[in-house]
Write a structure and sequence with these properties.
The complex is a heterodimer of chains A (156) and B (372). With 156 residues, chain A is of the alpha+beta class. Chain A contains five helices and six strands; from the N terminus they run αβαββαββαβα. In chain A, strands 1-4-6 form a three-stranded antiparallel beta sheet. Chain A is elongated, with a radius of gyration of 20 Å. Chain A starts with a helix and ends with a helix. In chain B, the strands form three sheets. Chain B has a three-stranded antiparallel beta sheet. Chain B is of the alpha+beta class and 372 residues long. Chain B has helices spanning 51-55, 63-67, 75-90, 96-125, 131-149, 171-194, 197-203, 211-216, 222-226, 233-236, 257-278, 335-348, 355-363, 367-371, and strands spanning 10-15, 27-33, 36-43, 158-159, 162-163, 300-308, 311-319, 327-331. Classes of the chains: A alpha+beta (156), B alpha+beta (372). Chains A and B meet through helix 1 of A and helix 2, helix 5 and helix 6 of B. The complex binds iron/sulfur cluster (2 copies). Chain A: It holds the Pfam family Fer4_9. Chain A: Keywords: 4Fe-4S, Iron, Iron-sulfur, Metal-binding, Repeat. Chain A: One of its GO terms (biological process) is aerobic respiration. Chain A: It comes from Zestosphaera tikiterensis.
Chain lengths: 156, 372
Protein backbone atom coordinates (compact mmCIF):
# COMPACT_ATOMS: atom_id res chain seq x y z
CA UNK A 1 0.00 0.00 0.00
CA UNK A 2 2.96 2.29 0.47
CA UNK A 3 3.95 1.56 -3.15
CA UNK A 4 0.65 3.10 -4.26
CA UNK A 5 1.52 6.27 -2.41
CA UNK A 6 4.76 6.56 -4.37
CA UNK A 7 2.98 5.84 -7.64
CA UNK A 8 0.38 8.57 -7.21
CA UNK A 9 2.97 10.87 -5.68
CA UNK A 10 5.16 10.57 -8.75
CA UNK A 11 2.28 11.66 -10.93
CA UNK A 12 1.97 14.91 -9.02
CA UNK A 13 5.71 15.39 -8.85
CA UNK A 14 5.84 15.66 -12.63
CA UNK A 15 3.10 18.27 -12.83
CA UNK A 16 3.60 21.98 -13.17
CA UNK A 17 3.56 23.89 -9.87
CA UNK A 18 0.13 24.99 -8.81
CA UNK A 19 1.28 28.21 -7.20
CA UNK A 20 1.47 31.52 -9.05
CA UNK A 21 4.12 34.20 -9.05
CA UNK A 22 2.41 37.30 -7.66
CA UNK A 23 2.94 40.18 -8.33
CA UNK A 24 5.81 39.49 -10.75
CA UNK A 25 3.92 37.51 -13.36
CA UNK A 26 0.28 37.72 -12.45
CA UNK A 27 -2.18 40.05 -10.79
CA UNK A 28 -4.58 39.20 -8.02
CA UNK A 29 -7.23 36.60 -8.82
CA UNK A 30 -10.40 38.38 -9.68
CA UNK A 31 -13.70 37.49 -11.28
CA UNK A 32 -16.65 39.39 -12.68
CA UNK A 33 -18.08 39.72 -9.21
CA UNK A 34 -15.00 40.43 -7.10
CA UNK A 35 -15.74 43.15 -4.63
CA UNK A 36 -12.90 45.65 -4.40
CA UNK A 37 -12.27 49.35 -4.07
CA UNK A 38 -15.30 51.64 -4.09
CA UNK A 39 -16.15 54.44 -6.48
CA UNK A 40 -18.15 57.40 -5.27
CA UNK A 41 -20.22 59.57 -7.57
CA UNK A 42 -20.07 62.94 -5.84
CA UNK A 43 -22.70 64.44 -8.11
CA UNK A 44 -25.26 61.92 -6.84
CA UNK A 45 -24.40 61.56 -3.17
CA UNK A 46 -26.85 63.44 -0.97
CA UNK A 47 -24.99 62.96 2.30
CA UNK A 48 -27.77 60.82 3.75
CA UNK A 49 -25.23 58.76 5.78
CA UNK A 50 -27.00 55.47 5.07
CA UNK A 51 -23.67 53.91 4.08
CA UNK A 52 -22.10 54.99 7.35
CA UNK A 53 -24.93 53.53 9.40
CA UNK A 54 -24.95 50.18 7.65
CA UNK A 55 -21.19 49.57 7.65
CA UNK A 56 -20.47 46.64 9.98
CA UNK A 57 -16.81 47.54 10.35
CA UNK A 58 -17.28 51.24 11.09
CA UNK A 59 -15.06 52.01 8.13
CA UNK A 60 -17.04 54.98 6.85
CA UNK A 61 -16.94 58.48 8.23
CA UNK A 62 -18.79 61.46 6.81
CA UNK A 63 -16.49 64.38 6.03
CA UNK A 64 -17.11 67.86 4.73
CA UNK A 65 -16.08 68.80 1.19
CA UNK A 66 -16.49 72.37 -0.01
CA UNK A 67 -17.87 72.88 -3.47
CA UNK A 68 -21.02 73.39 -5.49
CA UNK A 69 -23.16 70.44 -4.47
CA UNK A 70 -26.80 71.33 -5.03
CA UNK A 71 -28.06 67.87 -4.03
CA UNK A 72 -25.91 67.73 -0.90
CA UNK A 73 -26.91 70.59 1.38
CA UNK A 74 -24.73 69.58 4.33
CA UNK A 75 -21.79 69.00 1.93
CA UNK A 76 -20.83 65.74 3.65
CA UNK A 77 -19.50 62.71 1.83
CA UNK A 78 -18.27 59.28 2.91
CA UNK A 79 -14.59 58.71 3.58
CA UNK A 80 -13.57 55.05 3.65
CA UNK A 81 -10.80 53.66 5.79
CA UNK A 82 -9.39 50.66 3.96
CA UNK A 83 -7.68 49.45 7.07
CA UNK A 84 -11.10 48.60 8.41
CA UNK A 85 -13.17 47.85 5.32
CA UNK A 86 -14.08 44.20 4.83
CA UNK A 87 -15.39 44.69 1.27
CA UNK A 88 -18.76 43.29 2.20
CA UNK A 89 -20.58 45.59 -0.16
CA UNK A 90 -23.31 46.47 2.31
CA UNK A 91 -22.78 50.19 1.75
CA UNK A 92 -23.31 49.81 -2.00
CA UNK A 93 -26.51 47.89 -1.39
CA UNK A 94 -27.75 50.39 1.17
CA UNK A 95 -27.10 53.59 -0.82
CA UNK A 96 -30.53 54.83 -1.91
CA UNK A 97 -29.16 57.12 -4.65
CA UNK A 98 -26.78 54.71 -6.41
CA UNK A 99 -23.86 56.95 -5.57
CA UNK A 100 -21.53 54.19 -4.38
CA UNK A 101 -20.34 51.28 -6.48
CA UNK A 102 -17.51 48.78 -6.37
CA UNK A 103 -14.75 47.75 -8.76
CA UNK A 104 -12.60 44.65 -8.86
CA UNK A 105 -9.48 46.55 -7.85
CA UNK A 106 -8.33 44.44 -4.91
CA UNK A 107 -5.46 42.41 -3.58
CA UNK A 108 -2.04 43.98 -3.79
CA UNK A 109 -3.29 46.96 -5.78
CA UNK A 110 -4.52 48.28 -2.46
CA UNK A 111 -1.46 47.36 -0.42
CA UNK A 112 0.57 50.25 0.87
CA UNK A 113 3.44 50.87 3.23
CA UNK A 114 2.12 54.17 4.46
CA UNK A 115 -0.70 53.67 6.93
CA UNK A 116 -2.10 57.12 6.30
CA UNK A 117 -2.73 56.38 2.64
CA UNK A 118 -5.37 53.78 3.48
CA UNK A 119 -7.76 56.59 4.28
CA UNK A 120 -9.59 57.43 1.05
CA UNK A 121 -11.12 60.88 0.99
CA UNK A 122 -14.27 61.51 -1.07
CA UNK A 123 -12.18 63.14 -3.81
CA UNK A 124 -9.88 60.14 -4.00
CA UNK A 125 -12.84 57.78 -3.97
CA UNK A 126 -14.52 59.57 -6.83
CA UNK A 127 -11.40 59.54 -9.01
CA UNK A 128 -11.91 56.36 -10.84
CA UNK A 129 -8.98 54.16 -11.69
CA UNK A 130 -5.30 53.74 -11.20
CA UNK A 131 -5.07 50.46 -13.07
CA UNK A 132 -6.26 49.75 -16.54
CA UNK A 133 -7.65 46.29 -15.89
CA UNK A 134 -10.58 47.32 -13.83
CA UNK A 135 -14.12 46.12 -14.03
CA UNK A 136 -17.17 47.51 -12.33
CA UNK A 137 -18.45 44.66 -10.26
CA UNK A 138 -21.13 45.89 -7.97
CA UNK A 139 -23.58 48.58 -8.99
CA UNK A 140 -27.30 48.92 -8.91
CA UNK A 141 -28.03 50.13 -12.43
CA UNK A 142 -26.66 49.36 -15.86
CA UNK A 143 -26.41 53.03 -16.83
CA UNK A 144 -23.96 53.45 -13.96
CA UNK A 145 -21.66 50.82 -15.45
CA UNK A 146 -21.53 52.56 -18.78
CA UNK A 147 -20.92 55.95 -17.24
CA UNK A 148 -18.10 54.65 -15.06
CA UNK A 149 -16.51 52.82 -17.96
CA UNK A 150 -16.45 55.94 -20.07
CA UNK A 151 -14.98 57.94 -17.28
CA UNK A 152 -12.36 55.28 -16.64
CA UNK A 153 -11.33 55.25 -20.29
CA UNK A 154 -10.92 58.99 -20.42
CA UNK A 155 -8.89 58.90 -17.20
CA UNK A 156 -6.60 56.06 -18.27
CA UNK B 1 28.44 4.52 32.27
CA UNK B 2 25.63 6.35 30.60
CA UNK B 3 23.15 7.93 32.90
CA UNK B 4 19.51 7.26 32.20
CA UNK B 5 17.03 9.79 33.43
CA UNK B 6 13.65 8.38 34.22
CA UNK B 7 10.94 10.94 34.67
CA UNK B 8 8.84 9.85 37.52
CA UNK B 9 7.29 13.09 38.55
CA UNK B 10 4.41 14.79 36.83
CA UNK B 11 5.12 17.86 34.82
CA UNK B 12 2.89 20.48 33.29
CA UNK B 13 3.37 21.35 29.64
CA UNK B 14 1.83 24.18 27.68
CA UNK B 15 0.90 23.05 24.20
CA UNK B 16 -0.06 25.64 21.60
CA UNK B 17 -1.30 28.03 20.34
CA UNK B 18 1.90 28.49 18.31
CA UNK B 19 2.47 24.79 17.79
CA UNK B 20 2.07 22.95 14.48
CA UNK B 21 0.22 20.24 16.38
CA UNK B 22 -2.31 22.61 17.91
CA UNK B 23 -5.63 23.11 16.14
CA UNK B 24 -5.39 26.83 15.51
CA UNK B 25 -5.59 29.52 18.11
CA UNK B 26 -6.14 27.50 21.26
CA UNK B 27 -3.72 26.21 23.82
CA UNK B 28 -3.72 23.24 26.16
CA UNK B 29 -2.28 22.59 29.56
CA UNK B 30 -1.12 18.97 29.58
CA UNK B 31 -0.22 17.04 32.68
CA UNK B 32 2.50 14.57 31.69
CA UNK B 33 4.16 11.67 33.35
CA UNK B 34 7.03 10.67 31.11
CA UNK B 35 5.43 10.39 27.69
CA UNK B 36 1.96 9.68 28.94
CA UNK B 37 -0.67 12.42 28.98
CA UNK B 38 -2.58 12.22 32.25
CA UNK B 39 -4.85 15.19 32.01
CA UNK B 40 -5.66 17.97 29.59
CA UNK B 41 -7.12 21.38 30.10
CA UNK B 42 -8.22 23.70 27.31
CA UNK B 43 -7.00 27.29 27.30
CA UNK B 44 -9.33 29.21 24.97
CA UNK B 45 -9.67 32.95 24.51
CA UNK B 46 -6.86 33.85 22.10
CA UNK B 47 -9.38 34.73 19.43
CA UNK B 48 -12.29 36.05 21.43
CA UNK B 49 -14.09 38.76 19.51
CA UNK B 50 -17.44 38.87 21.25
CA UNK B 51 -19.61 38.20 18.22
CA UNK B 52 -22.81 37.63 20.15
CA UNK B 53 -22.54 41.06 21.73
CA UNK B 54 -21.40 42.74 18.51
CA UNK B 55 -24.44 41.40 16.72
CA UNK B 56 -26.70 43.22 19.14
CA UNK B 57 -25.34 46.51 17.80
CA UNK B 58 -25.80 45.83 14.11
CA UNK B 59 -28.81 45.57 11.85
CA UNK B 60 -30.44 42.24 11.13
CA UNK B 61 -29.27 42.06 7.53
CA UNK B 62 -25.77 43.29 8.32
CA UNK B 63 -25.13 40.52 10.85
CA UNK B 64 -24.67 38.07 8.00
CA UNK B 65 -21.27 39.71 7.52
CA UNK B 66 -20.35 38.84 11.10
CA UNK B 67 -21.90 35.41 11.13
CA UNK B 68 -19.62 33.96 8.48
CA UNK B 69 -16.64 34.92 10.57
CA UNK B 70 -17.00 32.57 13.50
CA UNK B 71 -15.49 29.74 11.55
CA UNK B 72 -12.97 30.48 8.84
CA UNK B 73 -13.06 27.03 7.31
CA UNK B 74 -16.79 26.62 7.04
CA UNK B 75 -18.29 30.10 6.61
CA UNK B 76 -21.40 29.32 4.59
CA UNK B 77 -22.95 26.88 7.00
CA UNK B 78 -22.55 29.53 9.69
CA UNK B 79 -24.25 32.09 7.46
CA UNK B 80 -26.98 29.61 6.67
CA UNK B 81 -27.64 29.00 10.37
CA UNK B 82 -28.09 32.71 10.96
CA UNK B 83 -30.29 33.41 7.93
CA UNK B 84 -32.48 30.39 8.73
CA UNK B 85 -33.02 31.78 12.21
CA UNK B 86 -33.93 35.21 10.83
CA UNK B 87 -36.19 33.70 8.16
CA UNK B 88 -37.90 31.81 10.97
CA UNK B 89 -38.34 35.06 12.87
CA UNK B 90 -39.92 36.76 9.85
CA UNK B 91 -41.96 33.63 9.25
CA UNK B 92 -41.23 33.57 5.52
CA UNK B 93 -40.68 30.78 3.03
CA UNK B 94 -37.78 31.66 0.75
CA UNK B 95 -38.11 31.02 -3.03
CA UNK B 96 -37.23 27.56 -4.23
CA UNK B 97 -34.33 28.78 -6.33
CA UNK B 98 -32.77 30.46 -3.31
CA UNK B 99 -33.11 27.26 -1.33
CA UNK B 100 -31.37 25.23 -4.00
CA UNK B 101 -28.52 27.68 -4.37
CA UNK B 102 -28.13 27.98 -0.60
CA UNK B 103 -27.79 24.22 -0.38
CA UNK B 104 -25.20 24.10 -3.16
CA UNK B 105 -23.17 26.85 -1.50
CA UNK B 106 -23.39 25.17 1.92
CA UNK B 107 -22.27 21.82 0.52
CA UNK B 108 -19.34 23.45 -1.26
CA UNK B 109 -18.41 24.93 2.06
CA UNK B 110 -18.48 21.47 3.65
CA UNK B 111 -16.22 20.06 0.92
CA UNK B 112 -13.87 22.99 1.30
CA UNK B 113 -13.74 22.52 5.05
CA UNK B 114 -13.03 18.80 4.80
CA UNK B 115 -10.29 19.45 2.23
CA UNK B 116 -8.71 21.95 4.57
CA UNK B 117 -8.90 19.38 7.31
CA UNK B 118 -6.97 16.84 5.20
CA UNK B 119 -4.06 19.27 5.20
CA UNK B 120 -4.56 19.77 8.89
CA UNK B 121 -4.55 16.04 9.55
CA UNK B 122 -1.44 15.62 7.45
CA UNK B 123 0.34 18.20 9.57
CA UNK B 124 -0.59 16.23 12.68
CA UNK B 125 0.86 13.07 11.22
CA UNK B 126 3.94 14.78 9.87
CA UNK B 127 2.90 14.17 6.28
CA UNK B 128 2.96 17.34 4.24
CA UNK B 129 3.40 16.37 0.63
CA UNK B 130 0.18 14.56 -0.26
CA UNK B 131 -2.18 16.61 1.90
CA UNK B 132 -0.98 19.74 0.16
CA UNK B 133 -2.85 18.54 -2.94
CA UNK B 134 -5.99 19.05 -0.92
CA UNK B 135 -5.11 22.73 -0.72
CA UNK B 136 -4.96 22.85 -4.52
CA UNK B 137 -8.44 21.32 -4.63
CA UNK B 138 -9.65 23.81 -2.07
CA UNK B 139 -8.17 26.61 -4.15
CA UNK B 140 -10.40 25.52 -7.04
CA UNK B 141 -13.40 25.86 -4.76
CA UNK B 142 -12.24 29.27 -3.57
CA UNK B 143 -12.02 30.38 -7.19
CA UNK B 144 -15.55 29.09 -7.69
CA UNK B 145 -16.66 31.14 -4.70
CA UNK B 146 -15.01 34.20 -6.13
CA UNK B 147 -16.88 33.60 -9.36
CA UNK B 148 -20.25 33.20 -7.64
CA UNK B 149 -20.12 35.45 -4.62
CA UNK B 150 -17.31 37.90 -5.24
CA UNK B 151 -15.12 36.82 -2.34
CA UNK B 152 -12.89 33.87 -1.67
CA UNK B 153 -13.14 33.22 2.05
CA UNK B 154 -16.05 35.15 3.57
CA UNK B 155 -18.82 35.25 1.04
CA UNK B 156 -21.86 37.03 2.53
CA UNK B 157 -23.90 35.43 -0.19
CA UNK B 158 -26.92 34.48 1.85
CA UNK B 159 -29.30 37.14 3.06
CA UNK B 160 -32.47 36.84 5.11
CA UNK B 161 -35.10 36.07 2.52
CA UNK B 162 -32.94 34.39 -0.10
CA UNK B 163 -29.60 34.89 -1.78
CA UNK B 164 -27.89 38.16 -2.52
CA UNK B 165 -27.41 37.92 -6.28
CA UNK B 166 -28.84 35.76 -8.99
CA UNK B 167 -26.66 32.92 -10.25
CA UNK B 168 -24.78 33.49 -13.54
CA UNK B 169 -25.95 31.75 -16.70
CA UNK B 170 -22.99 29.36 -16.89
CA UNK B 171 -23.36 28.34 -13.25
CA UNK B 172 -24.15 24.72 -14.05
CA UNK B 173 -21.10 24.04 -16.23
CA UNK B 174 -18.73 25.96 -14.05
CA UNK B 175 -19.82 24.13 -10.91
CA UNK B 176 -19.57 20.72 -12.56
CA UNK B 177 -16.11 21.59 -13.82
CA UNK B 178 -14.98 22.54 -10.31
CA UNK B 179 -16.47 19.38 -8.81
CA UNK B 180 -14.77 17.29 -11.44
CA UNK B 181 -11.35 18.72 -10.62
CA UNK B 182 -11.94 18.33 -6.91
CA UNK B 183 -13.17 14.75 -7.02
CA UNK B 184 -10.18 13.69 -9.10
CA UNK B 185 -7.78 15.08 -6.52
CA UNK B 186 -9.76 13.59 -3.64
CA UNK B 187 -9.60 10.19 -5.27
CA UNK B 188 -5.83 10.49 -5.58
CA UNK B 189 -5.53 11.57 -1.97
CA UNK B 190 -7.65 8.65 -0.86
CA UNK B 191 -5.43 6.25 -2.77
CA UNK B 192 -2.14 7.72 -1.67
CA UNK B 193 -2.83 8.99 1.83
CA UNK B 194 -5.96 7.64 3.48
CA UNK B 195 -5.30 3.99 2.68
CA UNK B 196 -1.60 4.33 3.44
CA UNK B 197 -0.30 1.81 5.96
CA UNK B 198 1.54 4.37 8.05
CA UNK B 199 -1.56 6.53 8.39
CA UNK B 200 -3.62 3.52 9.42
CA UNK B 201 -1.12 2.45 12.02
CA UNK B 202 -0.94 5.89 13.53
CA UNK B 203 -4.70 6.33 13.75
CA UNK B 204 -6.36 2.95 14.20
CA UNK B 205 -7.51 2.34 17.75
CA UNK B 206 -6.39 5.81 18.83
CA UNK B 207 -8.87 8.20 20.42
CA UNK B 208 -11.87 5.92 20.67
CA UNK B 209 -15.25 7.49 21.43
CA UNK B 210 -18.07 5.04 21.04
CA UNK B 211 -21.84 4.91 20.87
CA UNK B 212 -23.90 6.34 23.67
CA UNK B 213 -20.86 7.87 25.40
CA UNK B 214 -20.47 10.25 22.44
CA UNK B 215 -24.05 11.44 22.96
CA UNK B 216 -23.41 11.99 26.65
CA UNK B 217 -20.32 14.03 25.85
CA UNK B 218 -22.39 16.37 23.71
CA UNK B 219 -20.77 15.51 20.40
CA UNK B 220 -22.37 15.97 16.97
CA UNK B 221 -21.24 15.78 13.38
CA UNK B 222 -18.68 13.38 11.91
CA UNK B 223 -17.32 12.45 15.34
CA UNK B 224 -20.77 11.26 16.42
CA UNK B 225 -21.30 9.38 13.20
CA UNK B 226 -17.90 7.72 13.51
CA UNK B 227 -19.05 6.56 16.94
CA UNK B 228 -21.79 4.61 15.20
CA UNK B 229 -24.79 6.90 15.58
CA UNK B 230 -26.36 7.91 12.25
CA UNK B 231 -27.51 11.35 13.32
CA UNK B 232 -27.40 14.12 10.76
CA UNK B 233 -29.66 17.18 10.86
CA UNK B 234 -29.82 17.20 7.09
CA UNK B 235 -31.77 13.95 7.47
CA UNK B 236 -33.33 14.35 10.91
CA UNK B 237 -34.74 17.83 10.37
CA UNK B 238 -34.24 18.77 6.72
CA UNK B 239 -33.73 22.47 6.04
CA UNK B 240 -33.17 24.31 2.72
CA UNK B 241 -33.38 21.73 -0.09
CA UNK B 242 -32.05 18.69 1.75
CA UNK B 243 -35.49 17.09 1.79
CA UNK B 244 -35.48 16.97 -2.01
CA UNK B 245 -32.23 15.10 -2.59
CA UNK B 246 -31.14 11.59 -1.76
CA UNK B 247 -27.83 11.00 -0.07
CA UNK B 248 -26.29 8.66 2.44
CA UNK B 249 -25.01 9.38 5.90
CA UNK B 250 -21.73 7.50 6.36
CA UNK B 251 -21.47 5.80 9.74
CA UNK B 252 -18.43 4.26 11.40
CA UNK B 253 -18.23 1.31 13.74
CA UNK B 254 -15.13 1.60 15.88
CA UNK B 255 -15.21 5.29 16.72
CA UNK B 256 -11.44 5.74 16.46
CA UNK B 257 -9.44 8.38 14.62
CA UNK B 258 -9.26 6.31 11.47
CA UNK B 259 -13.05 6.02 11.31
CA UNK B 260 -13.33 9.77 11.56
CA UNK B 261 -10.86 10.18 8.70
CA UNK B 262 -12.78 7.75 6.49
CA UNK B 263 -16.13 9.35 7.25
CA UNK B 264 -14.98 12.81 6.27
CA UNK B 265 -13.66 11.57 2.94
CA UNK B 266 -16.94 9.75 2.28
CA UNK B 267 -18.83 12.92 3.15
CA UNK B 268 -16.97 14.78 0.43
CA UNK B 269 -18.33 12.31 -2.13
CA UNK B 270 -21.84 12.59 -0.67
CA UNK B 271 -21.70 16.38 -0.89
CA UNK B 272 -20.64 16.15 -4.51
CA UNK B 273 -23.63 13.88 -5.09
CA UNK B 274 -26.01 16.37 -3.47
CA UNK B 275 -24.74 19.25 -5.60
CA UNK B 276 -24.98 17.20 -8.78
CA UNK B 277 -28.60 16.40 -8.00
CA UNK B 278 -29.49 20.01 -7.29
CA UNK B 279 -27.86 21.66 -10.30
CA UNK B 280 -30.47 20.54 -12.87
CA UNK B 281 -33.22 21.69 -10.53
CA UNK B 282 -32.12 25.32 -10.60
CA UNK B 283 -34.36 27.25 -12.95
CA UNK B 284 -32.34 29.91 -14.74
CA UNK B 285 -35.42 31.74 -16.03
CA UNK B 286 -36.79 32.14 -12.53
CA UNK B 287 -36.41 35.74 -11.36
CA UNK B 288 -37.46 35.11 -7.78
CA UNK B 289 -34.38 34.55 -5.66
CA UNK B 290 -34.71 37.13 -2.92
CA UNK B 291 -37.67 38.35 -0.91
CA UNK B 292 -37.84 42.00 0.03
CA UNK B 293 -38.35 41.91 3.77
CA UNK B 294 -39.39 44.81 6.00
CA UNK B 295 -36.46 46.30 7.90
CA UNK B 296 -38.00 45.52 11.30
CA UNK B 297 -38.95 41.90 11.86
CA UNK B 298 -41.96 40.95 13.98
CA UNK B 299 -41.58 40.37 17.69
CA UNK B 300 -40.54 36.96 18.81
CA UNK B 301 -37.91 34.30 18.47
CA UNK B 302 -36.30 32.44 15.62
CA UNK B 303 -34.30 29.24 15.51
CA UNK B 304 -31.91 27.95 12.89
CA UNK B 305 -30.20 24.56 12.99
CA UNK B 306 -27.76 23.38 10.39
CA UNK B 307 -25.41 20.46 10.02
CA UNK B 308 -22.12 22.28 9.66
CA UNK B 309 -18.94 20.46 8.68
CA UNK B 310 -18.14 19.88 12.35
CA UNK B 311 -21.59 19.14 13.68
CA UNK B 312 -24.75 20.81 14.77
CA UNK B 313 -24.69 24.58 14.62
CA UNK B 314 -27.63 26.25 16.32
CA UNK B 315 -28.59 29.92 16.24
CA UNK B 316 -31.31 31.41 18.40
CA UNK B 317 -32.40 35.02 17.85
CA UNK B 318 -34.74 37.13 19.91
CA UNK B 319 -36.34 40.35 18.71
CA UNK B 320 -38.11 43.03 20.72
CA UNK B 321 -39.37 44.97 17.70
CA UNK B 322 -36.22 46.75 16.75
CA UNK B 323 -33.75 47.01 13.89
CA UNK B 324 -31.19 45.39 16.16
CA UNK B 325 -31.39 41.88 17.61
CA UNK B 326 -32.13 41.76 21.32
CA UNK B 327 -30.08 38.60 21.65
CA UNK B 328 -28.27 36.21 19.34
CA UNK B 329 -27.17 32.96 20.90
CA UNK B 330 -24.93 30.54 19.06
CA UNK B 331 -24.26 26.95 20.01
CA UNK B 332 -21.09 25.93 18.19
CA UNK B 333 -20.23 22.33 17.37
CA UNK B 334 -16.54 22.51 18.30
CA UNK B 335 -16.68 23.25 22.01
CA UNK B 336 -17.41 19.71 23.29
CA UNK B 337 -14.70 18.25 21.05
CA UNK B 338 -11.89 20.00 22.87
CA UNK B 339 -13.31 19.85 26.38
CA UNK B 340 -15.37 16.80 27.28
CA UNK B 341 -14.22 14.51 24.48
CA UNK B 342 -10.50 15.13 24.95
CA UNK B 343 -10.77 14.68 28.70
CA UNK B 344 -12.67 11.45 28.18
CA UNK B 345 -10.13 10.07 25.71
CA UNK B 346 -7.16 10.99 27.86
CA UNK B 347 -8.66 9.43 30.98
CA UNK B 348 -9.80 6.32 29.16
CA UNK B 349 -6.79 5.18 27.20
CA UNK B 350 -3.03 5.51 27.25
CA UNK B 351 -2.42 8.63 25.21
CA UNK B 352 1.18 9.59 24.61
CA UNK B 353 2.34 13.05 23.65
CA UNK B 354 2.91 11.82 20.08
CA UNK B 355 -0.70 10.67 19.78
CA UNK B 356 -2.11 13.86 21.13
CA UNK B 357 -1.97 15.99 17.93
CA UNK B 358 -3.36 13.07 15.95
CA UNK B 359 -6.38 12.79 18.23
CA UNK B 360 -6.99 16.53 18.32
CA UNK B 361 -6.82 16.83 14.56
CA UNK B 362 -8.97 13.82 13.87
CA UNK B 363 -11.69 15.55 15.90
CA UNK B 364 -11.32 18.60 13.63
CA UNK B 365 -12.24 21.38 16.03
CA UNK B 366 -12.48 24.94 14.77
CA UNK B 367 -10.69 27.26 17.16
CA UNK B 368 -12.39 30.55 16.11
CA UNK B 369 -15.72 28.81 16.55
CA UNK B 370 -14.94 28.03 20.19
CA UNK B 371 -13.99 31.58 21.09
CA UNK B 372 -16.29 33.53 18.82
S1 LIG C 1 -17.74 47.43 1.92
FE1 LIG C 1 -18.60 46.92 3.94
S2 LIG C 1 -16.94 47.30 5.38
FE2 LIG C 1 -16.36 48.34 3.47
S3 LIG C 1 -17.09 50.43 3.71
FE3 LIG C 1 -18.74 49.30 2.67
S4 LIG C 1 -20.08 48.57 4.33
FE4 LIG C 1 -18.14 49.19 5.28
S1 LIG D 1 -22.90 57.44 -0.69
FE1 LIG D 1 -25.09 56.98 -0.84
S2 LIG D 1 -25.61 56.24 1.22
FE2 LIG D 1 -23.63 57.25 1.42
S3 LIG D 1 -24.15 59.34 2.02
FE3 LIG D 1 -23.96 59.34 -0.23
S4 LIG D 1 -26.05 58.99 -0.96
FE4 LIG D 1 -26.04 58.42 1.22
Amino acid sequence: MVIKTFKVGLKYLLRRPYTRLVPDREGPLTSDRTRGRHVLDMSKCTGCSMCQKVCPADAIQMVKVEGPWPQNVKKIFPRIDYQRCTFCGMCVEACPFNALSMTNISGWYLITRDKKSTLYNPEKLSKVFETKEYRITMVKSLAEVQRLKKEGESNA
Amino acid sequence: MKEVIVMNEEIELFFGPQHPGAPGNVGFKLKLKGERVLDVELIPGFLHRGFEKMMENRWWEVNVVLSSRYCVEDPDNMELGYVLAVDDLYGVEVPEKANHVRTVVAEMSRIQSHLFWIMFMGAGLGARYIPSWAMAAREEILKWYDYLTGHRIYHHYMVPGGIRWNVPQDFNERTLHTLNTVSKIVRDIEEAFITNKIVRERTEGVGVVKGSIAVELGVSGPTLRAAGIPYDIRKADPYASYGKVSFEVPVGSRGDSYDRIKIRVKEIYESIKIIEQLLPKINYEDKAYRLQLPTIPPNGEGLGRVEAARGEHLVHVVNLRSRYPYRVRIRPPSMPLLTTVLKYIVSNEEVTIADFPVIVKSLDPCAPDIDR
